[in-house]
Amino acid sequence: MNIELIKGDITKIQTDAIVNAANSSLLGGGGVDGAIHRAGGKQILDECIEIRNRQGKCKTGEAVATTGGNLPAKYVIHTVGPVWNGNEGKESKLLANCYKSALKLAESLEVKTIAFPNISTGVYRFPKELAGKIAVEEVKNFKSAIVEKVIFVCFDNENEEIYRKLLEE
Ligand code: AR6
User: Fold this and answer.
1) What Gene3D superfamilies would the database entry show (predicted)?
2) Does residue 117 line the site of ligand 1, with CB under 6 A?
């Protein structure tokens, strides 16, 4: 699998799928979630509401998919990262599950290219260095005959620096 690093706004990325760092309500919020719903338009929210009506809230570490609405990406894969409370073992596993669930769902949608934001490293306060390690490890461990390219989209300088180092290793 090809791994790339980009600094910028994930709503501008042209891939088959972009991943959203959502919350369990699936009804939108701030940060990257807010940016995706703003840029993608009402269709994404309508589909999220449908999913909620069908299966209830999205649990931490799980993922659901909607279309991309007005975004350049075809799909948005919404996953719910853990809130960092200092329980490293438990929260690391949940964050790893986000990447696993999103990649599995991407495969089932026959996604070839997928872009990830730095899940949980904003409002949810997950330590960026540890989150980066988990993200890179999960992507590298995911062997797929369908997904060809994963792009890590870093919004802030700190994450960009962390990912640059991790991907050089
Ligand atoms: N493109 C790419 N990355 C972005 C963008 C963007 N447009 N905007 C922010 N980031 P956060 P979380 C980065 O807080 O920590 C929401 O309210 C940001 O710099 O968006 O998982 C949800 O509804 C950071 O590195 O998500 C939840 O309630 C990363 O995205 C809660 O926040 C994640 O920051 C989820 O918190």
Assistant:
1) Leucine Aminopeptidase, subunit E, domain 1
2) yes
Q: What distance in angstroms lies between residue 14's CA and the mean position of ligand 1's atoms?
A: 19
* Confidence check: pLDDT of 169 > 90: no
Query: For 50-63, what is each residue's pLDDT tens digit?
Result: 999 999 999 999 99
The CATH number of residue 129's host domain is 3.40.220.10
Ligand 1 atom 3: residue of nearest CA: 155
| ipTM of this complex prediction, to 2 decimal places | 0.99
| Cα–Cα distance measured from residue 118 to residue 109, given in angstroms and rounded to the nearest whole number | 22
For the chain, the average pLDDT equals 98
Number of CB atoms found within 10 A of residue 4's CB: 12
Distance 27 CA to ligand 1 centre (A): 14
- Assess whether the C-beta atom of 29 lies below 6 angstroms from ligand 1: yes
Beta carbons of 109 and 12 less than 8 angstroms apart: no
Print the domain residue range for 54.
2-168
